[in-house]
Specification:
The chain has four helices and no strands. Helices cover 68% and strands 0% of the residues.
Length: 65
């Protein structure tokens, strides 16, 4: 995932009020792994990146504008 795309998904996650810990449980990894991935480009498997994106895209949370 490129830097720009990663930044966009981080913003989407924040807007939808999805916590890092929530995604970490879904992915089966530590919340630090997700945080490092979003901020520093920490490597994650392609499968986890795909699940990360799908979770954010499909999450029905309390969105605010």
């Amino acid at each position: 995932m490129e830097l720009r795309e990663r930044e966009l998904y981080r913003v989407k996650r924040i807007i939808k009020r999805i916590k890092i810990a929530e995604i970490a449980v879904y992915l089966g990894c530590h919340r630090g792994t997700v945080g490092h991935f979003e901020n520093n480009g920490y490597p994650m498997s392609k499968e986890k990146i795909q699940k990360y994106k799908e979770y954010i895209d499909n999450h029905q949370g309390s969105e605010r504008l």
